[in-house]
Structure formats: structure tokens, C-alpha cells
Amino acid sequence: MTDVEAPADGRVARRERNINSVLDVVLEMFAEESLFPTIEQVAKRSGLSLRSLYRYFADPAELLEAVIVRSREQVAEAVLLPAIGQGSVADRIDDFVAMRLRLHEISGPTFRATMANAARHPRVAAELASNRDLMRDQFVLQFAPELEGLSTKEREHVLNAGDLLTQLDAVDFLRRHRQLSTDDTHAVVAAALGALFR
Q1: Hey, how many other C-beta atoms are within 10 angstroms of the C-beta on 27?
Q2: Which domain holds residue 53?
Q3: Residue 62 domain-assigned?
Q4: 127-159: per-residue pLDDT in tens?
Q5: Whether 84 and 182 share a structural domain
Q6: Fewest CB atoms less than 10 Å from the CB: which of 119, 159, 175, 197?
């Protein structure tokens, strides 16, 4: 490494640290139910200058997009299903519901902030739609044996119902609005899926 490269590498590393620190601050604010943080508020809380933040993020939508990506990276392991599509339907339902509850536990605040900001920021809405599509695809893989045995129309109905039951919207409704415990939420969603695949 030359003397010229060393300072450049240091600047890149510092920039990356600063950006990650800012993103983590926003995630903390989401957890405190501050769903519409301004760049000014984030600058004050993170200890970085407003000028620095605007160098990293052109506008609030860009900041929110980066926070969503950061959150997705943080939950990558929590959403894994190592034996996806394998085992009895009862075991697969249990594993799938437990995974979605883990996901909600970790990223529920970010989900609520994404929902709150989607109407104002098209790029945030696109991230929300992309995440929902990924969750639907995972449902298809986990319950492929049951879905493959259905007619095209039946498959579409069952898939849409199962997708509705297992998106974070449904989990958030049961946990926060109905104030169900994690165990009770698990039981409700698992029973609904069991009835769907009966």
C-alpha cells in the first residue's frame, strides 16, 4: 500500500463508520416511535454535522432507504429457514410462524416507519413492496407441496390468504393492537394456516 492509498482508505473507512452510526441512530429513533425523523434531528442525535449528513444522503427518502437496507441486513439470519419446504406441514407452519415473529420482534419499528413514510416517498414505497414480495416468495417455497396440489384458482386463493396471514402487517396488528403475547400470536397464526391447508 502506498502513502497515497493509506489516507484514502482511512477516509473510506471513516465514512462507512459514520454512515452506519447514522443508520443505527435512525433505527433507535424508530424503536422510540419517532417515525418521521428529519435529517436535522438525526444530525443532532448522531453528533455529526448537518453538512456531513447531506453529503451522505441527498434527502430524507435516501436516508430512509438506507435504513431499510441496513435493517434487512440485520435480520438476514433471523429469517432463514434452513430446511425450507421440508418436513410435515405442521412442523413447517410452526417454523414459519416462529420465524415471522422473530422478524417482527427485530424489525417491527422499522416496518412501522416504512409504512408511515411510504405514502410520502415513492422509493420507500418501492422498498416496502419489494420486501413484501420477498416474504410472499418465502411463503411459496415453504408451502410448495400444499400449493402444488391445488388448481390454479385454488392455489391463488390459498396463496393470497396465507400471504395476508403472515405479512408483518398481520403480526403487528395482533401483537400491538390486539396486545396478544408472542405465544398467543403464534397460536392464532398457526391455527389459521392449519385451517387453510386442511
Answers
A1: 18
A2: 5-57
A3: no
A4: 999 999 999 999 999 999 999 989 999 999 999
A5: yes
A6: 119
Is residue 89 domain-shared with residue 142, that is, in the same domain?
Answer: yes
Burial (0-12, 13-18, 19+ Cβ within 10 Å), 79: middle
Distant-in-sequence contacts of 58-61, Cβ < 8 A, 24+ apart: 60/121, 61/117, 61/121, 61/122, 61/123, 61/124
Name the phi and psi angles at 149, rounded to 5.
-85, 5
Same-domain check for residues 46 and 128: no
Cβ pair 41, 29 in contact under 8 A: yes
| Side chain identity, residue 34 | S
pTM of the predicted model over 0.90: no
CATH number at residue 29: 1.10.10
> Per the structure, how many domains does the chain have?
2
Rounded alpha-carbon distances, angstroms, from residue 67 to 92, 114, 191: 31, 10, 34
Number of residues written out for the chain: 198
Q: What is the mean pLDDT of the chain?
A: 92
